[in-house]
Structure formats: C-alpha cells, structure tokens
Design goal:
By secondary structure, this protein is mainly alpha-helical. It has one domain. Helices cover 76% and strands 0% of the residues. Helix 2 runs antiparallel to helix 3. The longest helix has 14 residues.
Length: 71
C-alpha cells in the first residue's frame, strides 16, 4: 500500500488516487485507513495538488522565515 501511494504521488494526473484510497480502506490497517479517508475530505484539492505544476513553496518559505524572526 505504501509503495502504491508513492507511485500515485509520482503520476502527474492524480487519477489513480481514488482507487488507492479504496484499496487502503479495504486493507483495514488503522493508520493507513484513517489517512486515506482523510484524503477524501477534500479530494478535489488533493488531486489538484498532484496534477497541477503550481507550487506555493516560495511563499511558504517566506512565511516560515517571518515567523522565525518574530519569535
């Protein structure tokens, strides 16, 4: 299941994610099942995160740097 999730993350479309979530739910592994179900709460956003090339990494770095200097 974990390797399968890694494979899903490397696919640029995210179309394999719903099938992986179903498989994880059927596997009935407590931590994995809970995490997989958590992805369904906003499946559109998760799929978009896998499919789109846009990244907020630069913004997040700037915000974290500001937070560090405020402390």
């Amino acid at each position: 299941m974990v390797r399968g999730f890694g494979y899903v993350l490397t696919q640029p479309t995210g179309v394999l994610l719903p099938a992986w979530i179903e498989g994880a739910a059927e596997a009935d592994l407590p931590g994995l099942t809970h995490s997989a179900r958590g992805l369904t709460s906003d499946l559109d956003a998760v799929t978009a995160g896998l499919a789109l090339r846009w990244s907020s990494g630069g913004t997040e770095r700037a915000v974290n740097r500001i937070k560090k200097t405020k402390k």
